[in-house]
């Protein structure tokens, strides 16, 4: 990561309404948990976008390495039999 | 003084407090230490604009001369503004802005909490909306005072200096006059002595936790309630009212 003279980074996840998944909204800078939550609130919920917020220190996120993309993701591309649409539905089958 | 005149004064005062404080916080736009704080302070300014609008609109309605919130904001001179002096003081450094916000937001939190039970339904409704906003402003300012006070030597000294300098402007927040007396009698206004006790307890708690000392009550500045201001208000108004002064009735 580039040298950042600001406070440490936090990833912000927002839930738009109860029951929905939390979706990544962006990042904020903050020196502690409370400040991260407040900054996330001030930055991402000004127009009523959310009802709940998670903040996670950016360095707590474990990310996949783009150099491993071949190994990680390519094998999934040519295995159409893993998709339900690969199989022909028997006629008359119910409740599948 | 009639009850209507007193309500007019009372709302004008609260509206002016919000408007002038909002102006000062808006000055942080693009100047705050970090982007997130820039957004926070200007968000607060927007909350205050909303409150000023509601208070001034209601004052105009009570006055009954057809003046709108805009008329009251843009067409009164300095001596006709009744905000507390602390609202108009220049921002200074970030510590001074935060110290002021702690003082004013704490005041507003206890004031508007009690005003929710005002016998005037419009004031009670504005108070109910405002309380949620100022509770957050108070928490935000309090957290910053803790971080600065209990932070580095530099941040500790700056916030202590700001608190010491602003202290003499806090006495005015609890001044009362005929307007307050008339409305307190009708359960429209709140008892500022009760607000003061809660304010002092909260501020003392925050300052102690932040390893800061609480200034002694000495000479207290006064004048805002009589329209007698520091030299700073005139500069605010000359900029804020420029357009309406130069192009009366301008709309866009």
Can you walk me through this structure?
The complex is a heterodimer of chains A (96) and B (252). By secondary structure, chain A is α+β, with helices and mostly antiparallel strands. In chain A, 18% of the residues lie in helices and 23% in strands. Chain A has helices at 33-44, 69-73, and strands spanning 8-15, 23-30, 52-57. A three-stranded antiparallel β-sheet of chain A has the order 2-1-3, covered by helices on one side. Chain A is flat, with a radius of gyration of 21 Å. The mean pLDDT of chain A is 86. Chain B has one domain (3-246): Up-down Bundle (Ferritin). Chain B is built from eleven helices and no strands. The longest helix of chain B has 29 residues, at 35-63. Chain A binds chain B through residues 6-7, 28-32, 34-35, 38-39, 42-43, 46, and chain B through 34-37, 39-40, 43, 139-140, 143, 147.
Question: What key phrases describe this protein's structure?
Answer:
heterodimer; A: 96 residues; alpha+beta; Ubiquitin-like (UB roll); three-stranded antiparallel beta sheet; 18% helix; B: 252 residues; mainly alpha; Ferritin
Mean pLDDT of chain A: 86
Rg of chain A computed from alpha carbons, rounded to a whole number of angstroms: 21 Å
Structural class of chain B: mainly alpha
The CATH C-level name of one domain in chain A is Alpha Beta
Describe, in short, the structure shown.
The complex is a heterodimer of chains A (96) and B (252). Chain A is an alpha+beta fold and 96 residues long.
